[in-house]
Amino acid sequence: MRYDCLSIAGHPVVETPNLDELARTGVRFDRAYSATPSCVPARAAIFTGQSQEKHGRVGYQDCVPWKYEHTMPGEFSKAGYHTQCVGKMHVYPARNLMGFHNVVLHDGYLHHNRNKYSIPVQEHYDEVDDYLHWLRQQVPGADLTDLGLDCNSSTVARPWHLPEKLHPTNWVVTESIDFLRRRDPDKPFFLWMSFVRPHSPLDPPQAYLDLYEDADIPDPPIGDWAMTDDPDLDGLSPYTSKGLVPKRRLKKAMAAYYALITHIDHQIGRFLQVLAEYGEKNNTVILFTSDHGELMGDHNLFRKSLPYDGSARVPFIVNDPGNRLGLGNGKVVQEVVEMRDIMPTLLDAAGVAIPDSADGGSVLKLAAEESGRKEWRSYLHGEHTQGAQSNHWLTDGKEKYIWFSQTGEEQFFMLEKDPQELHNAVHDVVYQDRVNYWRSVLVKELEGREEGYSDGKQLIAGQKPVTVLSHIRSE
Question: SUPFAM superfamilies recorded for this chain (predicted)?
Answer without folding.
Answer: Alkaline phosphatase-like
